[in-house]
Design a protein that fits this description.
Elements lengths: L1 H21 L2 H22 L5 H20 L4 H20 L5 H4 L2 H24 L3 H26 L3 E3 L3 E5 H22 L8 H32 L14 H19 L3
Helix pairs in contact: 2-3, 2-6, 3-6, 4-6, 4-9, 4-10, 6-7, 6-10, 7-8, 7-9, 8-9, 9-10
């Protein structure tokens, strides 16, 4: 399993990075929309939509809202704030599971939540890429999430004893959580120092602000992972799909990123 995960990551990561840096913006938007559409297909299943027609309708709904957003970029800011609200709600659903399963089991609720989550993440990809040095900032956010995931995985396997959220994901531990936070601080903070733009080497207040940002993004990445676990546990499935060997489905690979992107896009608008 670990070997499959590593091989899949080594193949996908360079492709994603190349797409971020090399694709013209409209093609970039289309390629990452296609990736999100694969996630939409899987989310439809997690929402209880079992027929091909219903799942196709879910993906079509995502396509229509994405097209509307593309042609009306003035909606981006509102959508990002709505996304922040969605993830605040997701945090509550994780914290109150299994009681929250009653709400998640309602198909219409999961459908609306899925449409909003995927749309806002895609919009955030557009917003971040449009910022000055946007491609590099986007890569920074991805490396932050990946380092937190890897740090949590290996620290949890080696030292994990205290369960983080046993009702949601019994395999996750507090030791893994702190290992992921340490890894994200080292990678995220280290990269900011390396670029040499005084983000972490200037005034102490600015440095502390970025430490708080890294920690906040690390925490929300964990929420993204746990929330997908809530969806899967509610529907009684182990993985969102089987497209990626060693990882499961597309959602299994991007769950944390879906949560981080809207918040990061908002942060970039203020710092």
């Amino acid at each position: 399993m670990l070997i499959q995960r590593v091989i899949t990551a080594l193949i996908l990561a360079p492709l994603v990075i190349a797409g971020i840096y090399l694709l013209p913006f409209p093609i970039y938007a289309l390629v990452f929309w296609m990736l999100a559409a694969l996630g939409a297909w899987e989310w439809a299943r997690l929402s209880g939509l079992t027929t091909t027609l219903a799942q196709s309708a879910f993906v079509a709904g995502f396509a229509l809202t994405a097209a509307f957003s593309w042609w009306f970029p003035a909606s981006f800011t509102v959508l990002l704030w709505m996304g922040a609200g969605v993830w605040a709600l997701a945090t509550i659903l994780v914290a109150t599971y299994p009681e929250s399963a009653v709400l998640i089991e309602r198909g219409w609720f999961s459908v609306i939540l899925g449409q909003m989550t995927l749309l806002v993440a895609w919009v955030a990809l557009l917003v971040v890429r449009s910022e000055p040095d946007g491609a590099s900032w986007l890569l920074w956010a991805l490396l932050l999430v990946w380092s937190a995931d890897i740090g949590a995985y290996f620290t949890g396997r080696r030292f994990g004893h205290h369960k983080l959220a046993p009702a949601v994901s019994p395999g996750k531990t507090w030791e893994g959580f702190w290992g992921g936070m340490a890894a994200s601080l080292m990678i995220g903070g280290g990269l900011l120092v390396i670029v040499g733009d005084d983000v972490l080497t200037g005034e102490i207040a600015q440095a502390l602000l970025w430490v708080a940002i890294i920690v906040g993004l690390g925490v929300i990445s964990v929420i993204g992972d746990l929330f997908e676990s809530v969806l899967k546990r509610t529907r009684g499935v182990k993985d969102s799909g089987n497209l990626l060997p060693g990882h499961g489905g597309v959602l299994d690979r991007i769950d944390s990123i879906l949560a981080v992107l809207p918040l990061f896009a908002l942060i970039l608008g203020f710092v």
